[in-house]
Specification:
The chain has an eight-stranded antiparallel beta sheet with strand order 7-8-9-10-18-15-14-13, with no helix packed on it. The chain contains 18 helices and 34 strands. A hairpin with a 3-residue loop joins strand 16 and strand 17. The chain is an alpha+beta fold and 728 residues long. Helix 12 packs across helix 14, helix 14 packs antiparallel against helix 15 and helix 15 runs antiparallel to helix 17. The protein folds into two domains: 210 residues, Beta-galactosidase, Chain A, domain 5; 408 residues, Alpha/alpha barrel (Glycosyltransferase).
């Protein structure tokens, strides 16, 4: 995950850890379903761990895990057996724990007895609640001690805790149990070849909140999570592919994306994408923008909701502590974090150099998908404030490039997507000193200028459009002069504080391909380098080439492979016509997903596929994670070369899917307020059900630079006709 506090590494979750997620709630447990407070386990609701211990024993012993299967992103079934006291290997007692996460969780415990005689069982759940902040748990630095009171009454255990002037509570509802302040106990006799079952519920707050939290709203047995998922499934495309494993990966992406949706508390109608589980179940500027724009073919409203939510939190003042500046788009929001524990010590932290230009990039993309003109117009003042930040704060020294340098010693050292403390370095491994101008950030600024120019032309403001188009052209020329390293055939990852080329070979230049910042004559050398053995592991493009001084295949940003990064690189290669290279990346990514049940993680290690026959997991990778979940969507959409420009009345499709992907059939795809069907058979596309006024085009859709050129040409032509023939 780009973000949070990458200066501090999280402790590993451990083998067999199971993560469930729904909105801003998530649960991490061991493979037998137990939660251990001395591990980074727990039930977290709005960034607070409301349950730190949940340990089940039967007749005094913990369960031996047999299986843990995630049914949906928010529901899992744990199956274990009760070890025998007499030393025999096989036990007749099997325990099932069906857990569902929402605003808390509900767990159905079932004990099955496969013996010929009844089995007496003492079933005990020991319960702990430390109300630790997510930051404390992630970094194993829990220091606060809450004053706790426990009350067992009426089939429920209530735990209330205070710290300074903060009061928090949690309730466990356990009907039929013997309840003490420390545990709930059931003493039962399980019939021969029979079973016993009970349901427990855990929610934050008071006992009154329990009853409504997990009661199905109708008599069909579906929980609120099931109904929310059903609503999501009904509004997104239905996909069929000839390659069933790739189809499974895409369906998994849809599921994970649906589970990572969270609502803006101030505007529940706005849905945004949380960055990822377990540690980033909140709004991130960069991550949420990238994930939502890559998911537009599935649900374009996510990108709009993300823009609107970020606009409401756009910077207004200069605050060195939180790194807020006027017009700046935030880096992250924390929902229930205590002062001093988050970056900047506040709920909003702004230490991101790229979220602001990305805001403009996504606004340009959203404007192409047919949202109402007044909806886009309402965001234009925020877009202009973002432009002001780019010019007045992003480019502090006025050299034409946007740089970063943290404003206090608690903020992120590096503030691009590779934001680990050692993420930006020279070819010899030496760290770059700030202020740092990242290559991909200049690409985002370039498309930000073009996006706002196109919107200006569309509104008839030719002068403003021309000004921004000229800025974009100057930036492209300057970038290709100062970042290109001709003797090496690739672009520097950055310029350092002394305007020296930070000459490491990194994946960042692939982002510059996608935005069109790279000169045509240099693109073949960039493509060759990105797919070289030093950069391409066989599964994907590494973040850093293996012949660089800082390379480490098991690092976070210096040699690992990130799916979202690869999806962007592949799209950039396609833009410049490198189809075979993009297909290799897409095939490697889809192959990698097969080793993790169709789900691509946040990142995996950069070991060569020739050296190790399976992708090596990165120990603390988030999974599910938003821009990893949207990476397969971006990869397939890019290879379809599918994109609409509703305002220009067109839908473009020119597929180059690998033959191994098979034919593609998509129904219920959202577009321009309607739903369309897309078929690709043997690379031949067809589109059905287009809304009135839209025309299908076989070919690549106009890039933003081309849209700007076309808009400028139309304005000039209209003016020429209005002025009449030139005087003789």
């Amino acid at each position: 995950m780009a973000g949070w506090n990458a200066d501090t590494a999280a402790g590993p979750l451990g083998a067999g850890t199971v993560t469930l997620v729904e909105g801003s709630s998530f649960c991490i447990s061991s493979s037998n379903g137990d939660i251990h407070g001395d591990h980074p386990h727990g039930l977290f609701v709005q960034d607070a761990r409301i349950l730190s211990g949940w340990r089940l024993t039967v007749n005094g012993v913990a369960l031996e895990p047999l299986a843990a299967e995630t049914k949906e992103p928010y529901r899992a079934l744990f199956v274990g057996r009760v070890p025998r006291a007499d030393g025999y290997a096989d036990s007749p007692l099997i325990v099932e724990r069906l857990r569902e996460v929402g605003a808390g969780f509900q767990e159905r415990i079932t004990v099955r007895n496969y013996a010929l005689e009844p089995a007496g069982c003492v079933i005990v759940l020991k319960i702990e609640a430390d109300f630790a902040d997510l930051f404390e748990v992630k970094e194993a630095r829990i220091q606060r001690r809450w004053d706790e009171t426990r009350q067992a009454d009426g089939g429920a255990l209530s735990i209330r805790s205070t710290w300074q002037d903060v009061l928090k509570g949690m309730v466990v509802q356990a009907p039929g149990a013997d309840i003490t302040p420390e545990a709930v106990t059931y003493q039962v006799s399980v019939p021969a070849h029979g079973h016993w079952s009970t349901v427990l519920t855990v929610v934050p707050g008071t006992e009154e909140t329990v009853s409504a939290a997990f009661v199905p709203p109708s008599g069909d047995g579906f929980s609120p999570r099931d109904l929310r998922r059903r609503e999501w499934v009904e509004k997104i495309p239905v996909l069929q592919m000839g390659n069933r494993s790739i189809e499974r990966t895409l369906r998994r992406s849809y599921d994970d994306l649906g589970a990572l949706r969270i609502e803006d508390p101030d505007h529940p109608e706005r849905v945004v994408v949380a960055a990822g589980a377990p540690w980033f179940m909140t709004l991130f500027g960069r991550d949420s923008l990238w994930a939502s724009v890559m998911a537009m073919p599935v649900d374009p409203s996510l990108a709009l909701g993300t823009l609107q939510t970020l606009a409401d939190r756009q910077g207004t003042v200069v605050d060195p502590l939180s790194e807020e500046e006027p017009g700046k788009i935030l880096h992250e929001v924390r929902l229930d974090v205590s002062s001093g524990l988050s970056l900047g010590g506040k709920s909003n932290y702004y230490g991101s150099v790229d979220a602001t230009p990305l805001f403009l990039m996504v606004l340009g993309a959203v404007s192409r998908w047919g949202f109402a003109a007044d909806t886009i117009a309402a965001l234009l003042p925020h877009a202009d404030r973002a432009l002001d930040w780019i010019v007045n704060y992003g480019d502090k020294d006025g050299d034409g490039f946007v740089e970063y340098q943290r404003l206090n010693d608690q903020g992120l050292i590096n503030q691009g997507w590779k934001d680990s403390w050692d993420g930006i370095n020279f070819a010899d491994g030496t760290l770059a000193d700030p202020p740092i101008a990242l290559s991909e950030v200049q690409a985002y600024v370039y498309v930000a200028y073009l996006s706002r120019a196109w919107l200006a032309y569309d509104a008839g403001d030719t002068a403003f459009g021309n000004e921004l188009a000229d800025r974009a052209a100057r930036l492209k020329k300057q970038f290709n002069e100062q970042f290109w390293i001709p003797e090496r055939g690739y672009y520097a990852i950055a310029l350092d504080g002394k305007k020296r080329q930070v000459d490491a070979c990194a994946s960042n230049m692939g982002h510059c391909l996608l935005q069109g910042l790279i000169d045509e004559d240099k693109a073949p050398m960039v493509a060759e380098r990105l797919l070289s053995p030093e950069m391409f592991s066989g599964w994907g493009v590494r973040t850093l080439a293996s012949d660089m001084g800082a390379y480490n295949p098991a690092s976070y940003h210096n040699g690992s492979v990130w799916p979202h990064d690869n999806a962007i690189v592949a799209a950039g290669l396609l833009r410049y016509g490198f189809v075979d290279e993009a297909q290799r990346i897409a095939a490697g990514m889809m192959d990698a997903a097969e080793y993790s049940d169709g789900r691509l993680p946040e990142l995996f290690c950069g070991f060569s596929r020739d050296q190790l026959g399976a992708p090596v997991p990165y120990p603390t990778a988030c999974s599910p994670q938003a821009w990893a979940a949207t990476a397969p969507i971006q990869l397939v959409t890019s290879l379809m070369r599918y994109d609409p420009v509703v305002s220009a009345g067109g839908v473009w499709l020119d597929p180059v899917l690998p033959e191994s992907f098979g034919d593609l059939h998509i129904t219920n795809a959202p577009l321009g307020g309607g739903r369309i069907t897309i078929d690709i058979a043997g690379s031949v596309p067809s589109v059905h059900g287009l809304p009135e006024g839209l025309v299908f085009h076989r070919g690549h859709r106009p890039w933003m630079s081309e849209l700007v050129e076309q808009a400028d040409h139309r304005r000039r032509e209209a003016r020429r006709q209005a002025d009449g023939p030139a005087p003789v």
